[in-house]
């Protein structure tokens, strides 16, 4: 009943915002959502137009906090029929209301500050959405059914890393059991250290990484540091690089008991030593995305699914089934964040990556030496 009523009047409210009646409407909304204390309501202090809609600032009655608002975010969105962001700032609640839809956008190389940021796309308000693997989000699962835009998201994440980061800071290991069909365009790039195209190669690579994890923890122990951040701060001239393993369709890998065990072991222990996993699947089944995967890879990029059940398997709630596909998704990192990924065709990616090809990578290779001197440049240097 509540949902129906608020849904039907929601559209109009956005226009009332700036017409003088707005506070009465907000008060009704807060009342319906239980966002008041002892008959005291959040007080509107300021309203501002923004590029994408408007932003309101409220002071709160005693006993009401940001968490109360976050819990009611969905109800407020339904009421307004708009997406919103809620922020706490200096004892005030800021509610940013977006009047524009997420738009499809073309890939553009985006520099980020973190050492291993994955650029996912844009959220409402044109804000960049990234996952900082070095800061609390060590491993990521990307899941969505065929046509959801999984390949495109992966392509733009990897391309952005190659274009904007330095080879001495990051190494990539790609596992593509479709015989290289998905990640083939990256195999000649200098940042790509290993490229596994079948189960045997994948298993060998995972073993090697497991040894590297042990080597790093021994190094930390000897030098009395707890993680890669502390180690790199202490040994500025002997920094360890960050390494990311991308696995396309990890369901194929999970059939191999040995590989599955190493993958889970890496997920559970590699986080502090700078080795990260990004695994993807287009088969959302409870057998594939099971408890072990959930426990070890809590950050999820969820793309369109055909059914509510599949959405619940991926993000543990409904929502993915309503997405429009083509890179429209939700990032689950605690709460859900809606996004649109950047569009990047294989042809354009190949074009952008050409300057990063290196001779020794032209054949499928496996290097034993994990570190070493490399010719190093980033995208911005190349385009100068
Ligand atoms: N961010 C995006 N913006 C615009 N179009 C997109 C975007 N992502 C994907 N698409 C389009 O959606 C279609 C499916 O994309 P993609 O191949 O990445 O999906 P997929 O989930 O990997 O599916 P499949 O496994 O069948 O290849 C493609 O035509 C692609 O061009």
Task: State the gist of this model.
The protein has 13 helices and 15 strands. The chain has 384 residues and is α/β, with parallel strands linked by helices. It has two domains: 2-98, Threonyl-tRNA Synthetase, Chain A, domain 2 (2-Layer Sandwich); 105-383, P-loop containing nucleotide triphosphate hydrolases (Rossmann fold, 3-Layer(aba) Sandwich), CATH 3.40.50.
Provide a descriptive summary of the structure in words:
With 384 residues, this protein is α/β, with parallel strands linked by helices. It has two domains: 97 residues, Threonyl-tRNA Synthetase, Chain A, domain 2, CATH 3.30.980; 279 residues, 3-Layer(aba) Sandwich (Rossmann fold), CATH 3.40.50.300. The protein is built from 13 helices and 15 strands. Strand 6 and strand 7 form a beta hairpin. The chain is globular, with a radius of gyration of 23 Å. The N and C termini lie far apart (60 Å). 40% of the residues are buried. Bound molecules: adenosine-5'-triphosphate.
Question: If helices are DSSP runs of H or I spanning 4 or more residues, what is the number of helices?
Answer: 13
Strand content: 15-25%
Mean pLDDT score, rounded? 86
Percentage of residues in helical conformation? 25-40%
Small ligands present: adenosine-5'-triphosphate
The major sheet is characterized as: 11 strands, mixed
Q: What value does the Rg take, in angstroms?
A: 23 Å
* H/E series: HHEEHHEEEEEEHEEHHEHHEHEHEEHH
- Overall structural domain count: 2
User: Which CATH architecture of the largest domain is right?
Assistant: 3-Layer(aba) Sandwich
CATH hierarchy, class of the largest domain? Alpha Beta
Uncertain parts = 1-21, 361-375, 379-384
End-to-end separation:
60 Å
Shape: globular
